[in-house]
Amino acid sequence: MTPVARQEVLGLYRRIFRIAKKWQSASGQMENTIKEKQYIINEAKTLFQKNKDLTDPELIKQCIEECKARVEIGLHYHIPYPRPIHLPPLGLAPQRGRAFRNQEKLRKLSKPAYLRSYDEVS
């Protein structure tokens, strides 16, 4: 990892923990605030721990972009959880064959940047 990328990653890590420290639930209830703070901390630790051994600069860049997107979306909508995406069901194509593979490929490509690592961890 280049020193510039390392500094950016460490800065994002610190920023996430500062956000978690100041986080207030949209509902205003203390128990929801505590749950959401804990979710932010656990999610950050899990994802940063999972990606600590990455060496490919392109993958590191993707992870940084995903992190920035999730932080900005969380701050904007005031929810720490990833926003759901609505993709068409797989019922249109048979479970085998070229049409199914093409549909799977389109679903994978249509996944937003902020959800790339969500399925792998959860």
Mean pLDDT: 84
The radius of gyration computed from the alpha-carbon positions, rounded to a whole number of angstroms, is 17 Å
Please work out how many helical segments DSSP would assign. 5
The largest sheet is: none
**What's the order of the H and E elements?**
HHHHH
Structural class: mainly alpha
User: In which range does the helix fraction lie?
Assistant: 55-70%
| General shape | flat
Distance between the termini: 26 Å
Low-confidence stretches: none
Number of strands: 0
Strand content: under 5%
Q: Would you give an account of this structure?
A:
- This protein is an all-alpha fold and 122 residues long.
- 64% of the residues lie in helices and 0% in strands.
- It contains 5 helices and no strands.
- The chain has helices at 3-22, 30-50, 57-77, 98-109, 118-121.
- Helix 1 (3-22) packs antiparallel against helix 2 and helix 1 packs parallel to helix 3.
- The protein is flat and about 50 Å long.
- The mean pLDDT is 84.
Q: Concise description?
A:
Helices cover 64% and strands 0% of the residues.
Descriptive terms for the model:
122 residues; mainly alpha
What is the fold's blueprint, element by element?
Elements: H1 3-22, H2 30-50, H3 57-77, H4 98-109, H5 118-121
Helix pairs in contact: 1-2, 1-3
